[in-house]
Amino acid sequence: MFTLVTSLLLALLPFQEIQIPGRAEGEPCWVLRPTYRMTLPSSWQVTMTPAPFDTRLPIATVSIDKEISLAIHSFPRRAGQEPIPPSAQVDRWRLQENFLHELIEPVSWGGFTGLYFEGQSKSRAVYAWALQLDEELDIHLALTTGSIEEKEHFQQMRSTITLKATGPAMVMEAKRAQLHQAIKQFELLQPIVLQ
Amino acid sequence: MRMIRWLGSYRFAILLLVCVLLFVITGTIIEEKSGSHSLAASWVYESPLFLALLAGFFVNILLSALLRYPFRVRHLPFLMTHLGLLMILSGVFVKTLFGTQGALFLKEGTASNSLLLSKSYALHLESKEMRYSFPLKEGEVQTLTDAPFPLKVLAWYPHGEERFDRWFQNDQLLIAGLPPLEVLKTNTFPPHPTFRGEIDIYAIEHNDPKSLLQSFHPARPTLIAAQLPSGDEWLSFFSPNQEPIEATFPQSGAHPLVLFDGGFGGYGVTFADFYSKIHRRLVSIESLPKKEERRPILRVLAGSEVVDLLYDPNHQALMWPCMEGHYLIRFGSQILTLPEMVRMREARALAYPESDEPFSYECAIRLDEGEEKWISMNRVHESKSGHRFYLSQLTERAGQARQVQLIVNRDPAKRFLVTPGGIILALGIFGVFWWKKRSSSSSSSPPSSSERTKS
Q1: Could you report how far apart the first and last alpha carbons of chain B are, in Å?
Q2: Which ipTM score applies to this complex?
Q3: Residue of B nearest to A181 (CA)
């Protein structure tokens, strides 16, 4: 009864907070703890797709009005391994379609820095963000002491991230502001305390 | 009684006003000549004489109200006005004595509750296990008794600056604490390190030192310092259990290299932490700039070692090693732990339409994971504990998360003295005018028929 009431009350709220687990690279991953969070409009359908190792699969997908698909990928790495630079992700996206119009801009929020890519072909549009953790925060996480599980979680937090929304150009344009606002809510669940 | 009457008289009030006027003129002249508000504040507005004048106002207002005793109903607006003024003046005293003002530094994605108090001094010590803070009074030479090792403040110098030399000079690698190391010109790694100690050091000249590293897997902590033909310098540090760190230092300017010692306190130290000190000089400067910009140098005796520390009010520089690297030390501001953890998600510059020229800055913060608030210079957020947060500065560097400086202040008297005092004062002033108008209209109205009959 309580769960039903809670679900009904939550359904009435205009926004939902979702928590997304990270994933590990190659090594045994005991716990996929919630690592990221996002605040999205309640009408957006979120599907969690835990994919502990396969980076070809998203860790979560969001369907917006059944026309736009937002895929969130994380790319974990081993200790000592270089992160995938955001420019490499953007280069990959640029090769995927013949875009008539392209825009690339630097972005920064939530401790992440990276690039925003916008591409538009005749009928379809792509708004995509390639992010990596700020260098100082990344080094801090790499060297913060803790239990083996905590260290594993810190390593997951150091993953590079892509958020890619695709859909019909007209619908994407209509949802542009809402999409951008929602994406900027993406952040690590656990803040990094430097001092 | 005559004395009390004089203290509550308008003559005393005028005398106080003239004195305050002279003080304000002096303060304005000092501020104009020195360009320093802080200097004017410390010499004039925060001086005991100026505070005594404010106390004089308090006594004058209090006595002038009490001298109306026995009170009548018509005194009510007058008393309210005086009560309001007394509450506001008390608020000023309480804020001066117990108020808080400081700065909070946050990078996007980080959280903190460490407030660095303005105009304060402290010596901070840190080991891998413990942190210690010792509040200091400006200019005071003292022994810090609670320190884990003998620690004494030997001297204060009013202002100084930090100068760093380059690593390589005259084909020698300079690391303070070590003799100059001869640079080896080679295309391969020398068979033995140039220096062997707690860490191995290779001092080489090479045009592509990175290429040498592909077949280099040291089993011990190792520093490779390379002088490039361009004159730039390249350093790389290997630690068996950590990621290698490397950096190029262009010829122009000073570029700190941040290393981490197994997450020691979670933040960076210089190479010095691994081996004594790097080549660093602190220079005491005689010509003093504005008081706000002065950075005193503190000379301390840590164990048997004399360490000079430059004031780091914002705790942005790296801590300095002492006691053979077992402790890090900083001469900074006093830290107040806020009751709320402040988290910052995003900071941004707001630009004029169709321009990159910013007209304002803002950032999104959460207090203890509560509702997100956007704050700016003019949009202040006040927490439940009465702390007011506003954005003071935004630092943006390409490829890095943005950093903000929030100013945080708390006036403990605001809620129970200043705001109610202001309301009572406003009501009192309104009452005074209303009463005057009422009495003047009643005295000028034509006499009633009964009064006419009597007369």
Answers
A1: 43
A2: 0.89
A3: B346
